[in-house]
Protein 1
Amino acid sequence: MSIEVIGTYAVAICLLIGAAFALIGTIGLLKFNDSMTRLHAPTKVGTIGIGALLLASMIHAHVFADGSMHELLIMAFLFVTAPISANFIAKVNIHRRSCDAPPPPPKDDTWSTLNVPEADRELAEPEKV
Amino acid sequence: MTVATDFMNIAIILAFIAVALAQVLSMVRLVIGPSVGDRILALDTMVVNAIGLIVLLGIAQGSRIYFEVTLIIAMLGFVSTVAYARFILRGDIIE
Amino acid sequence: MTRAFNWLFPHPLLTVLLTVVWILLQNDFSAGMAVFGLILGVIITKVTAVWWPERPGGVSVIKFLSYALIVIWDIMVANIQVAWIVLTKPNSKLRPAWIVIPLDLVQPEAITILAGTITLTPGTVSADLSDEGHSLLVHVLHTDDPDADRDGIKERYERRLKEIFA
Amino acid sequence: MSLFLVVALPFLGALLPGLMNNAGRQACAGVTFTVSLAAFIGLLTNLPAVLAGEVVMTGVNWLPSLGLNVNLMLDGLGFFFALLILGIGLLIITYARFYLSRDDNMGEFFTYLLLFQGAMVGIVLSDNILLLLVFWELTSLSSFLLIGYWKHLPAGRQGARMALAVTGMGGLALIGGMLILGNIAGSYDLSVILQNRELIQESPLYLPALLLILLGCFTKSAQFPFHFWLPHAMAAPTPVSAYLHSATMVKAGIFLMARLWPVLSGTPEWFVIVTSAGLITMVLGAVIALFKHDLKALLAFSTVSHLGLITMLLGTGTAFGAMAAVFHILNHATFKAALFMSAGIVDHEAHTRDIRRLGGLRHLMPITFVIATLAALSMAGIPFLNGFLSKEMMLEEANHTILFDTPWLVPTLAVIGSLFSAAYCFRLIGHTFLGKVRDDYPATPHDPGFGMWGPPALLVVLVVMIGCAPFLAEPFVKLVTAAVLGEAAEVPKAYFKIWHGLVPALYMSIAAVVGGLIVLTLFKPLLRVWDAAPRPEAKTIFEAIIAASVSLSRGLIHGLHNGAFSRYAAIAAVTITAAGYHAWSTGTIGAPTRSPQPAGAVEIAGWIMLVAATCGLVFLHRNRLLSLILIGIVGLMVSIGFVFFSAPDLAMTQITVEVVTIILLLLALNFLPNRTPIQSSVLRRVRDVAVALAAGGATFVMAYYFLLREAVTTPISEFHLANSYKGGGGTNVVNVILVDFRGFDTFGEIIVLGIAALLIYALTETLLNGPVRARLLNRKPDQPRAGDMHPMMMVVLTRVIMPVVLLVGFYIFLRGHNEPGGGFIAGLIVSIGVVMQYMASGFAWTSARLRYPYHGIIGAGVLIAGLTGIGSWFVNKPFLTSDFTYVRIPPFEKFELATAALFDLGVFLAVVGAVMLSLESFSRLARRAHVKDSEHPMDIDPSRDPADPTSPKTEGV
Amino acid sequence: MGLELLVASAIGILTAAGVYLTLRLRTFPVILGISLLTYAVNVFLFASGRLSVGAPPILTDATVYTDPLPQALVLTAIVISFGMTAVVVMIALGAYLGANDDSIDDPIATADDQVEDQA
Amino acid sequence: MTHWIIAPVILPALLAPFIVLAARYHIGIQRVFSVAGVVGLIAIAAGLAWQAADGTVTVYQLGDWAAPFGIVVVGDRLSTMMVLLTSILALFVLLYAIGSGWDDRGRHFHALFQFQLMGILGAFLTGDLFNLFVFFEVLLIASYGLMIHSGGDVRLRAGVQYVLFNLIGSTLFLFALGALYAQTGTLNIADLAERVALIDPADTVGIRMAAALLLLVFAIKAALVPLHFWLPSSYAEAPAPVAALFAIMTKVGAYAIIRVYTMIFPPELDVTAGLHSTWLMPAALISLGIGMVGVLAAKKLDRLVAFSVIGSMGMVMVAISLFTPAGISAALYYIIHSTLAAAALFLIADLVRAGRDNLNLVAMPPVSGAALTSALFFVAAIAMTGLPPLSGFVGKLLILDAGLKSDAAVWVWAVILCSSLVSVVGFARAGSVLFWKAKSVEAEVGAVVAPAPSTLSYVAVGGLIALLVAHTVFAGPVYRYVEATSASLFAPDPYISTVLETPGKLSKPTEDKEEH
Ligand code: NA
Ligand code: NA
């Protein structure tokens, strides 16, 4: 088996893995019945899924053309930004009470998201969006 | 080689369908919500899946010119997710 | 000399990172390109340094790389677990939980990396920080023993990060 | 003197009274008199030529293509009228000098009067009928100003507007008639038109032309049924009434009928319309006049009546009738102007014009009494006064006129008219001057100075002179009559004399005078009958018509323009769709020339996503944040579509623009309500859906049509593909088109962006300097805000990612010429990088450390792009001509230097500046709502010294 | 089913949705409606170069390229409509802040009716 | 080569950013540069019009690319005449803005003003339809900025509708351009004229839709009923000098219709037969009627003037829709007239407002300067209503005369004459309340008397009136010019051949540039 053939199979397998993970992540998004739980599925499974697809792309470039590395950049980008996105969505869930209330922190007064400014406390609870 | 290529082509098609299906499912979550966090999450997922779609397109066409698009979508998807979330959290997104 | 170096490279690692990014963007390596990337790395770091006023203390690059390898391995393993949960576990059998991690880390960079690690590892998401930054709120997708998970995180990641940001 | 000067003098002179206003009343009137006199003398210098039967002509071209030229002509008719206008004008000016009070602005009055005089002279001297129209309408305008001269009087304002409306309408009709007439004759010059009697009368357009012209004449001359405006014009100062509404302007219509008599008269249409209108007016005017108590109103209706008489005479279409008309015009002008001035004197002295409050003035104002009585008796048709002569001729003519096949109709009506005419004349004399002296006049009347009674006296001298020695006037009247008749008829042989023998006209005349006396003796009972009789009040009707048209137009305009944008947009959508449908349905459709490309599951999935997001947006649009998320999806799917269909540049642009737009909308939504309430009814929504579906269906059909057909020939983009590299130095053809082939578009495009930013900035400034500022300061968020304004993770990450984003922006900029990318996308990416920094640490903290002058960046961008374009001027090439070369500097590889890149740099800078200035402006609005700016890049930072007083508060600021 | 049908119907649907939202009574949905119309017209303008898959207008050794001109036109159109959107959002916001009402109807047109008639 | 023909675009385009960069905070310097720029524009425009007067067509190839591949700017009689008209109008409007202090009541007036000029002038000069779209957008966005200049709730609400409606118009323009390009593969006006001839008579729906949509686009700009709804409130609420400048903007639509529907889709073209000939005339007549009825219905002077603009555009469009040389000549004459008259009226309305802070048609105590203002109003109203002796009357005669040979002559005449009467009544009512009835109203005791408007304001208005007078007195020469213009529009071959046959970069076989 030549390196091309192996590469081709590798591409195919990476594609299947990536696509499967992407799909599984989204299934989780649809299936879970709680906002925080749903957050787990796509932010990670999706990341790995795209990672595999990008890997497939890199291998494909190495097999069929003169190579490519810049997919690494996209991968790095997604890996670095995913936690922030998840963190913000979690904060939204906590702020909008669309999940169970978290236990109080052991060291400080409260969670930063719940630390609503004094001026806003008398305002009505947010409407559900 | 042809067997491998055929296999790869089938894999590409399957991957396309899987990612497209993932998009549709995310869209469902986006529409049904119920919480705004779910919707933002669904949007974020769709952006990530969109990157997958374009990567697949690049592989299928053997073209590298879609790289910048992918990179930009990765960057901007993040920015818009943060912007939506900040809007919910603070109202003003660049206070 | 040090002052000149500090003036030119307010965040040397960032400059290196930008140079690498530039080479990756070009998708093709040549010396001229690396030099050009370095020039850009210096300029951009310099221009944006005003928004990064603090200079983080010495970071052990070697330890950081080994930490990264551990995280990548964990990510791959946990991914399969989560995929399994998604595909097989009905919602009724799912036991999600909040866990609270008291932090020993104080550097924002370190805390951020810890939180990022937790999120990237499937099954856990860093959700919030306490209002003075001494605790981290984490949501777990499925657990039978939240305390064990908390200790695992502190042991596997926070300890290593404390060493890196010594 | 040149005719130009005769016409122009009053107009030029009109500038003087205003200037002389401060020099005193005498100077003001004096200068006006001098100007008029100059014109009058100028006219007289042409008398020999006119008497010799010549037609004095002069002209210059004005708008020859249209046939509108300043061609003037002076013949007997014109001379006659000009003489009346200028001669009576001189008297009126003298009279007005003494009539107007010290409160009246004399400069203004005489300005208007001279304008009017000039316009009147213009009418009668015009050879070109379009020029005549100009003067015609000018008389309406100047009379509008003169009637409304006493602006504080409602009657004046209303009378002025009514006169303008009626005569304006007539003027417009006249425009139509004249244009038709000119088109039939092939020229707008009277001298040509008057030669073409047969051509005109045989034309199918003769009748419309006749009707339109007569409409103009009748309105101007207050003929039935347009007689009603004239009495209300009496709100004007008396000199105006005397001048315009008895002697001159109202005769403009008569003049025009006389002027066009050779080509228009003699047809059955002319005869029936003109004669009957004249007859009715004559009788009606006389009857109404009898019962008017206001002296001027009485005189006004008597004018109406006499104008009817003249009209009737012109209508008969005979040469004799025309001659009688001319003679009566002359006579009427003399006695009526004298009467008006006498009435003015009475008003001036007794402070009332109400006949019922007068009487016995004979003793108090003997001079005025003599003048007025002679003039009135002339009007009544008493022998030895000129009115008798022309009235005799009228009765004579009436005897020969058979209207509607009824021989007795015209004579009978003529007698009735004359009878009432005599009656009101007698009433005027009797009830004003005769009888006992009263002791309840509002003021003590006595004869005025010579300045006021001199002018009417002079006229009365003429009245008597012509009345006793008609042969004096005969040659002149015949001269004028000849001019009226032109080549259409011979001047009658009849001689002017007092005694014609016992002809029927004499009996009719006697009957009229006697009858008039009898009617006057029965005045009181008749008045009771008159007052009791229901009759339409023309003014009320007119005002009702105007009020109705105003409220109708308000209903239409306000109903149509009710401020509802949705209706405007719906009308636009329907109009566009309907026009498109019309274009489609009236064209031909051929077979497709392209075959469809197969679509797979993935493409269909993409389509489903797009459609689902779009439909979701429609159904869920009331939730505004959700609709923003959905429109984000639409943008994302469109971008992917662009990638799929080989447009990476577009995809990048679309997605970056999308994100910036969403950021902008989120910034705005912060202030706006988060939900859209349900306001429209189900029916409205059904209507909207129908409109939307029609528009959508139409676009679908159009798009599908074009997608399956080739262009008629090779698109011009073949050239771009072929020459992009050779001529533009780039392999990304889209970018080369943008910065080179069609760089001018891009230049405009960045200017649009720059303007957008300037506008947003300017509006923000305005808002923050206005009442909105207070509202913003007091503004409360509409829901509680979460703590942790600047989360640590975001801040830390931004420190790494933002530089990377800037690097990527730079990369995209550099490669745009050859690969997807370019200055625009790079600009947006860099902006988004900076926005990330703003979002992480806040606007205040970020801009406190580094604040770019975004105005300057925009300006610099546009200037760089523009100056790059101008640079090519120095190598003698057109704006924006590009050039490029390849350079090698070790250790770098060979690279391209292109002026297009410099242009692209301009684009880049303009985009960055515009986006950032806009975002900055939006966030400045928001910052007013806050008090504190953060001092730290992140709110929570355990590494900060807890003893530091500036360390983070537990309060989530 | 062909790609052409998909694209044409997408244009139609975007237009219909855009028109419907443009007929709403508040500025915000109307702005979104105009945005949808902008999408529709951008895609239509893009489609005036016809549809080709896998033939980007980046010069390589390939022989077939899609029509680059409509792409450049759409790019210009996108940028311009971005500027316009920013402007209309700002003006609408200004109007809202001034009157505390984001209704799109223009009260001036009818306020005219309150003026007493003296003419 | 000379670059003068591009100068009307480049000069304001560079002056504006220069003002923003260098004189952002100095209104005095802004004024100096702005006025100097406009004076320069007039000089350039006069030179260009002079050059084009003998029928010379000047083509300027942007980027040195030959038409139709690149964008060309074309100076012919029509475009240079419109450029000259715009520049002259701009000067007086600018003087008024300075004299009345309007330019200092918000930020960036002068920059926006210059950009507005750039957009308008570019729209007149360009020979490329997509470039026309770009210039439309430039002029529109600048107009948005000017329209809401100095803010205020009422103005902003009107502004929202104005912007949104024009966004619909811009969208429609792109639809039309897409259809045109899909059908013909080109965007250059001259090239389009040649390519429509190639269209298969058996498949005409495409080009017909394109032609119809394009016409609607221009009809929106020209405020043709029922696409005029954007105009009344926005023109009424815009700051006066801005509204006065806007008087030329509707003419851009009229200009575009003249250009496109004489060159690309002339009346005798078979494939588009029966399109604009069917509904343009009725729409124009209805516009004329609606406009003048609106004058009668108005209860505020600013709205009255705005409706008179609609009416005068209806008049212009009636003349255009005759599509005969005489009709177009009359339209061109009337365009000049109505631009000046409408501008003067908007400025006069502002003079009225200066003393009484609203424009309701109700009597208020007389104000300082009222006599002069009322005289100016009287003259401007005469012009607008088409009464003699001013150019409105001459223009009306020209249009009536041109319309006499039309099939719809009766309608044309009836509507023009009746609407004239209605507008006369409307203007007379307004004037008599504002200026006459005021004399019967006593000023409140102790009421602050507003100062009279500045001399410069009156100079600006007086200048416009003087131009109207000149337009009347020199109707002969002006008409000869527009007649020649119209004739050249109906014989477009010199235009087309000059545009398409001038060689540019790489269209000459000798020129070749390769990588070295
Ligand atoms: Na995790
Ligand atoms: Na809000």
Protein 2
Amino acid sequence: MAQAHVSVQAEDFDTGAEIERLGARSRQIGAVVSFTGLVREILGEAAMELEHYPGMTERALHAIATEALERWPLDGVRVIHRHGRLAPGERIVLVVTASRHRQAAFEAAAFIMDYLKTRAPFWKKEAGPDGGTWVDARESDDQAAARWST
Amino acid sequence: MAQAHVSVQAEDFDTGAEIERLGARSRQIGAVVSFTGLVREILGEAAMELEHYPGMTERALHAIATEALERWPLDGVRVIHRHGRLAPGERIVLVVTASRHRQAAFEAAAFIMDYLKTRAPFWKKEAGPDGGTWVDARESDDQAAARWST
Amino acid sequence: MRVLYFAWLRERIGAASEEIDPGDAATPAELIETLKAREERYAHAFADMTAVRVAIDQDMAALDTPLAGAREIAFFPPMTGG
Amino acid sequence: MRVLYFAWLRERIGAASEEIDPGDAATPAELIETLKAREERYAHAFADMTAVRVAIDQDMAALDTPLAGAREIAFFPPMTGG
């Protein structure tokens, strides 16, 4: 089974380079799917702060990526999640999956994002007056994650 | 409705730049999904030749991308398909979708790839002795496309 | 009427495109019958009709779609892009 | 036992982590009751238990998971990453 490669970092990442690196792992790879999450502008240009649980974050992301490798015939998985202060338009998260089958690559990337939303210990706080507002978890994310449990 | 941007070209493309460009279109975009198709190594290092129907190819890709824009709440769609001689490991096709909702971005990209496989006039010929072999269409591609028709 | 051939249909017929007078042919299927009767290479190329797809004026069509007014007709095997 | 708090639980309690003797508490729920009885800020932070999640030694756990042998316990609201 291929290995998952997971990073939790404050720095930005190079989407194109990550996609190229994963695709170059094997000449049997025909499909590379990527998901890039961006900070949406909710209220003006205010930045947000992404808090996480160092140690557990890496464990949780690795567990999710490994579950994807067990469920689908993948040749590689790459997950990068940023933390700290992020402005609207900035990249937050990258998931890349590589496979010989395009449907496996698509499904695995969607699965990782759905699980990551509800199982990776990150909390978003939107900057604002009164010290900002913690973003509420969304029920739609729970529902999205539930569709993968059989 | 956002506009689809479609290219058919012999030249390679810059995956990272295309993803970044589409994501920067609106500050409401939270999700950018990309699919990159690579030439798999089937029999040794032999290249393949991708023939297409100039004129109809652009029309067909544009129709598929426009259908995706009608079906999902997207902020942008980019499709690039190469033709001509391609060696194993080279990029063939890129589909990028941007949306405020990750599931819309995922589904639209998968839809475009499924339709493209059965509706865009491209034909692959694998190089080899006796002038090479035309790749057979796969029933699984017809089935993948059929799941989107309601 | 301009007729185009792609992939192995092009190779078997030995031409990428040609001008053809459709005569009485009212559909792609009838045009194919006319061509097959004309020369052996067409009979060879169109031997397995389950593997033949057709586009009229660059839109996918069926073998029994009326040709009326068509300027360009293309024959090709199932697509294998992506 | 090391206890960690994140997001608005951290803010309401006024600490990111502390060493706590769990005493007789055998589960996260019992530990929370002990803390709430001790000081008002804990009662405030843990007022709505439907919004509290728990991890034991960096694995997700339930409020009634046995604490036996745990070295690190963390309380936080539902996750909002991605």
